[in-house]
Specification:
heterodimer; A: 235 residues; mainly alpha; 11 helices; 80% helix; B: alpha/beta; Glutaredoxin; five-stranded mixed beta sheet; globular
């Protein structure tokens, strides 16, 4: 009976990436709409001010991918150093995440509807980094088969660090799937929506979705929301 | 000379990576936090309010092998594992093995409904605020701990358990 094995970085990455496009999306749906809302709102806002909105979105996604992967891996394997600190303070961190997401929603409305303000490119990267940290903290993951293998491997003291790096690869796969999907949806909406009023409506809707996440995080109802959402499909 | 946007962004990424390296090497655990739970560690003490009323502590199970199961009503893996836990409980409870289920990352009402719907015969309680889960380092359901008569964690498993034989091997170890 071999239950603990090293699945390797490629399998770990693929486990995270493919989870988004499989039945596990039911679980990931806890945070995926919020990332997509951010991507779409950000892209449509940036398209008003810049000739290269895709470049700006890629910068946001890069920051998101790096930091989501790191925080996700820390929280999934709370067995050393900073990971234990983050794990034990997750509820407090959720308040920080709520503040950032609320601020992002307000910025989207301001920058999206009023042309005289625009997003600084360095702030885009900071935004992506904070979004990555916020969604990793907000997420209550299900243990997918690949995650199960990594967590059980990391459960042995000698494997903790290798397990952490495998979880990092898993988180990178997962966050890249978010980035790809968010970017494709943002580009598609940019092509499809020609009327400025409709684009503004989408920006406001994206902001409202993000404000919804803020409320869930502040009220401590994120788990109840997940329970309701996934239960709705499984019941 | 001014830094280009790319250089500036690269610095942010490098800073993030440095945080990872620092985080891996230092112990920033808050005061009072239990040490990382390894196989062979004493199981952390807890008090859990049961959904049928009353409460249990770890000491309630002193002298008995205990299977501690963290589950959530929305979790597909928890749903898949449920019949195996029920079956193994039927087989091992007469031999003195106790099972206790804790609901995490869930709403209390949904978890209560889940327990009643599945008809678990062993006690279950909702871990409000995931205080007990944090003590055990549990970040996601389902996670199972196998605790022997002396209150020592002999093994743990993260993820679904859908084969009776697999679960039985671990339960045999604490018997």
């Amino acid at each position: 009976m071999v239950l603990v094995r090293d699945i390797g970085f490629v399998s770990a990455f693929w486990g995270g990436f493919s989870a988004f496009f499989s039945a596990w999306q039911l679980c990931i749906m806890q945070i995926s709409p919020f990332f997509i809302a951010f991507s779409v709102g950000f892209y449509l806002t940036e398209a008003k001010h810049s000739k290269a909105p895709l470049k700006s979105l890629i910068v946001v996604c890069a920051g998101y991918i790096v930091v989501f992967s790191i925080v996700f891996a820390f929280l999934a394997i709370p067995r050393f150093g900073l990971s234990r600190y983050l794990f034990y303070n997750k509820e407090t961190l959720k308040i920080g995440a709520a503040l950032f997401v609320g601020l992002s929603a307000s910025c989207l409305i301001l920058f999206g509807l009023f042309k005289k303000w625009r997003i600084n490119s360095a702030l885009s990267l900071v935004g992506g980094i904070l979004l990555g940290a916020s969604l990793a903290v907000a997420y209550s993951p299900c243990i997918t088969p690949a995650m199960s293998e990594i967590m059980n491997f990391a459960g042995k003291p000698a494997n903790v660090m290798k397990g952490f790096y495998l979880m990092l690869a898993y988180g990178a796969g997962l966050s890249i799937s978010f980035a790809v999907t968010g970017t494709v949806i943002a580009l598609a909406l940019d092509r499809l929506l020609k009327k400025n009023s409709v684009r503004n409506a989408i920006i406001v809707f994206s902001s409202l979705v993000l404000l919804g996440l803020t409320l869930l995080l502040v009220s401590g109802l994120m788990s109840s929301y997940k329970s309701f959402l996934v239960g709705f499909f499984l019941d | 000379m001014l830094m280009s946007g790319f250089q500036l962004q690269a610095r942010y990424v490098i800073c993030a990576l440095l945080i990872v390296v620092a985080g891996c090497s230092e112990d920033y655990s808050p005061k009072g936090a239990p040490p990382s739970l390894e196989s062979g560690s004493p199981a952390p003490q807890f008090t859990l309010e049961l959904i049928d009323g009353g409460s249990v502590t770890l000491d309630s199970y002193k002298g008995s092998p205990l299977v501690l199961i963290y589950m959530a009503s929305w979790c597909p893996c928890s749903l898949e594992s449920a019949p195996v836990f029920k079956e193994v409980y039927e087989e091992y409870h007469p031999k003195g093995v106790e099972f206790l289920m804790l609901g995490i990352q869930d709403s209390k009402s949904k978890f209560t409904k889940f327990v009643k719907k599945k008809g678990f015969k062993f006690p279950a309680g909702f871990d409000k605020g995931e205080r007990i889960a944090r003590l055990y380092g549990v970040s996601a359901p389902p996670t199972t701990f196998f605790i022997n008569r002396e209150g020592v964690v002999l093994s743990s498993f993260y993820g679904k358990i859908i084969e009776k034989n697999v679960l039985s091997v671990w339960v045999d170890q604490i018997l």
